[in-house]
Amino acid sequence: MKKVASSLTVLIVFAFLLASCNLPFFGGGQSLDENAINTLVAQTLAANPALIPPTPEVVVPTVAQIPTITPAPLATVAIPNTPLPTEDTCNRASWVTDVTALDGSIFLSNVAFTKTWRIKNVGSCTWNTNYAVIYSSGDQMSAPAATPLLGSVPPGATVDLSVNMKSPAANGKYKGYFLLRSDTGLVFGTGSTYMYPLYAQIEVSKLMIIPDLDFSGMFELLPLETLVYDFGTNYCIGNWRNATAPGFLACPGAKTDTSGFVVRNDSPKLQNNQTYNGVAILTHPQWIDGGSISGTFPLITVENGMKFRARIGCGYDGLACTVRFFLRYRVEGGTLEQLGQWDVKYTDAPVVLDVDLSSLAGKKINFVLQVATVDSSAQDWAHWVNPRIIK
Question: What is the model's pTM?
Answer without folding.
Answer: 0.62
